[in-house]
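Researcher: We plan to redesign the surface later, but first we want a full-length starting point. Tokens attached.
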């Protein structure tokens, strides 16, 4: 299976991004020794990872979902983005193994209830969250963002990003943050911090998943420039 992965096609289901449309996905399993190089290859080809599954849209008559990656070395640090960095200067990043905690789930639960109460993840239990984090056969880490603590006491968890470390970049699988801090643009800050971290590691890209023209929930991704979009001709400047 790992040397010659099998690909499967899901049944049609309602599209979460565009109304009155159906989506289908092609997917394969990421398991065994070949999982990591396969995940690298598939991510470069427009797939996303969810637990031990790599998938990408395969919708009939629709190509609205476009894979997006930020070009790290040429990133445009605009004034507004520098303000976001300054507003969150008190946050400290800590990279941890992909292991869940009750503190993470508390922030995750608050994030879902505040921002995605009607979404497909709204009913996720603590066990579901644990599977989302732990069920990986690739180099996956949790980037925790905390306020500074005192002495040996850790500061409170404000945001968290589940991130794959690829051969050519960082792939942000899922991120969430404490809803009380939305005014500080913590979601934007975590992306900016990943761009800075990729630069430190000498990695050329940060993968942001799919962008869908006309979808309000995806519009924020266009702010991170320059970026490349995956097209039938390969990755091109978007």
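Model: Full-length starting sequence:
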């Amino acid at each position: 299976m790992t040397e010659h992965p099998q690909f499967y096609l899901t049944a049609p289901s309602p599209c979460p991004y565009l109304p009155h449309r159906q989506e289908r996905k092609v997917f394969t399993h990421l398991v065994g020794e070949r999982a990591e190089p396969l995940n690298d290859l598939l991510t470069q080809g427009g797939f996303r990872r969810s637990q031990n599954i790599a998938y990408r849209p395969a919708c009939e008559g629709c190509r609205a979902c476009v894979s997006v990656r930020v070009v790290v070395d040429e990133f445009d640090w605009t004034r507004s983005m520098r303000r976001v960095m300054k507003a969150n200067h008190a946050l400290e990043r800590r990279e941890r193994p992909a292991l869940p905690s009750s503190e993470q789930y508390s922030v995750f639960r608050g994030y879902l209830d505040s921002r995605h109460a009607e979404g497909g993840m709204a009913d996720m239990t603590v066990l579901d969250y644990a599977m989302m984090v732990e069920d990986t056969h690739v180099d996956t880490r949790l980037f925790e963002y905390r306020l500074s603590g005192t002495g040996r006491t850790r500061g409170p968890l404000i945001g968290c990003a589940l991130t794959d470390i690829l051969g050519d970049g960082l792939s942000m699988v899922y991120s969430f943050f404490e809803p009380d801090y939305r005014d500080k643009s913590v979601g934007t800050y975590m992306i900016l911090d990943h761009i800075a971290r990729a630069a430190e590691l000498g990695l050329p890209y940060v993968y942001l998943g799919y962008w869908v023209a006309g979808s309000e929930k995806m519009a924020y991704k266009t702010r991170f420039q320059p970026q490349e979009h995956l097209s039938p001709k390969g990755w091109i400047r978007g």
